[in-house]
Amino acid sequence: MDFKNLSLIELSELVKNWKTTTSEIYNYFLERTKEYNSELNAFNTLPEESFVWDSEKSLPIAIKDIFCETGIRTTASSKMLVDFIPPYESTITERMKWAGFISFGKTNMDEFAMGWSGENSAFGPARNPWDTTRIPGGSSSGSAVAVAAWLVPAALGTDTGGSIRQPASMCGVVGFKPGYGRNSRYGVMAMASSLDCPGYFTRTVQDAALLYEVTAGYDSKDSTSLTAPVSIDSNIWKRQDLKWLKVGIPKEYFIDGIDSGVRSAIDNAIANIRDMWAEVIEISLPHTEHGVSVYYTICPAEVASNLARYDGIRYGALSGTGGNIVENRSEALGNEIQRRSLVGSYVLSSGFYDAYYKKATAVRELIRQDFSEAFAQVDVIVTPTAPTVAWKIGEKWSDPLSLYLEDIFTIPASLAWLPGLTIPVGFASPKDDSSIELPVGMQILGPVLGEEKVLMVGHIIEQAMKWIIESKKPKIF
Ligand code: GLN
Fold first, then answer.
1. In DSSP terms, which residues pair with 381 in a beta bridge?
2. Domain 8-284+378-469 carries which CATH code?
3. What is the Cα–Cα distance from 27 to 386, expressed in whole angstroms?
4. How remote is the CA of residue 65 from the centroid of ligand 1, in Å?
5. For the chain, domain boundaries
6. Residue 238 designated active-site
7. How do residues 283-318 score in pLDDT, each as one tens digit?
8. C-beta 162 within 6 A of ligand 1
9. β-pair type (60-64, 102-107)
10. Which residues are CB-neighbours of 131 under 8 A, at least 6 positions away?
11. Is the shortest distance between the CB of 143 and ligand 1 below 6 Å?
12. Which atom of ligand 1 is nearest to the CA of 414?
């Protein structure tokens, strides 16, 4: 049986109706993974050769290599942790397994989740299944690739400033980041603690909702975990029009730097939203232009604190070799980690704290207020997910500034702790090659605790635009 094209929900229906078994499904994806991983480099650790138990939900989910799982090597794609075997389990993977899902290998990523392209990895870059000479986006590069190339029906990722939404957009799959505090951070290696959000890569919005209901909700092991209940009303999947909906289009997100192909795919999606009778309103989020600088002040500050523990002495790949902290960190941490640790220590230092870190925190609050004011007028906000489609591996590698700007549309929602979804809505040619077309994602943002609304709107638009996405398949299919 060919399981490509099927969602988690469709696969579990097949099992329920005795059309197949979960081991058959597992083996199918295992074979595909073994066949294509050398070309795609989506996995740092391949899935286990077999699994034993069979229930309707025992479907495979690939895990970003940043979620600790007891006894399973977890590296964050860092030389520092290449042989780290966690003695404990993250809450998210624990809940996923309790629900019956099976963990399916560890996916490649940018080191400690810092990156845009998957190129900052000790395991080498993952490759985009639509064009393997191109980046898949990052930092959750391997999770996006694995779902897009049908190596697995769904995968876990983390999103600190866009690391689920951006690679999902570049690979043409659904990416969902619930709001901050909805998914526990316990057992997820910390990057920037006031921003890190675990979430999902799936084929459909409904699959994302399914996983969200399984993993999200209060966890006493994470002090910033929210207590509000997590439940999705199944009636939301029956709606087909957007008559009741007010959609905000922020003018600051439709700037000159966007690729024209991306712009027209998003304009087309907005026209579809209008056709479904939603009221589309232009809004303003005036502090958007400061998002990137605020993020690249706060994030490095938190990175410098969180990653100080990796000294290569108490643990880490070099422990026991007798080196000192400076040598070990220079040897085992990549350039981007070192760059952020330096910037972070600087903005936190006593002479510069007020000028940088404190100011960034104040502007973060203004960005948050922009969104609160906007959500007093509209139900959801719709934007492009990224300004470009996937670029060539190596193309922007030596230019961190141009990479920092790639995050311009995803960062503000991260700073404001909002839920964000990206769904594929069309295709565009990259600037350097008019003969190919690559996926374009549209971002749907909701207010704090607005996950259900975001998923409902995403599902309705997905149904209306599915035919466009299904008209093309990745090269590796
Ligand atoms: N690209 C952003 C960064 O490098 C976002 C990363 C993320 O969300 N983990 O920080």
1. 248, 445
2. 3.90.1300.10
3. 35
4. 15
5. 8-284+378-469, 290-358
6. no
7. 999 999 999 999 999 999 999 999 999 988 876 666
8. yes
9. parallel
10. 390, 436, 438, 475
11. no
12. 8
115 lines ligand 1 (CB under 6 A): yes
Residue-wise DSSP of 173-219:
SEEEEPPTTTS--TTBPPS-TTT-EEEEEESSHHHHHHHHHHH-S--
- Bridge-based pairing state of the strands 246-250 and 279-283: parallel
Is any atom of ligand 1 closer than 6 Å to the C-beta of 107? no
User: Each residue of 9-31: pLDDT tens digit?
Assistant: 999 999 999 999 999 999 999 99
Please, which residues have CB within 8 angstroms of residue 176's CB and are 6 or more apart in sequence? 164, 199, 200, 202, 205, 208, 209, 212, 419, 420, 421, 422, 455
* In the block, residue with structure tokens 């083996």: 27
Confirm whether 64 is a catalytic residue: yes
Nearest protein CA to atom 5 of ligand 1, as residue: 161
The answer, as to whether pTM is greater than 0.70, is yes
In tens, the pLDDT along 436-456 reads 999 999 999 999 999 999 999
Rounded CA gap, 135 and 157, in Å?
Answer: 17
In the reported structure, the alpha carbon of residue 163 is separated from the centroid of ligand 1 by a whole-number distance in angstroms of: 5
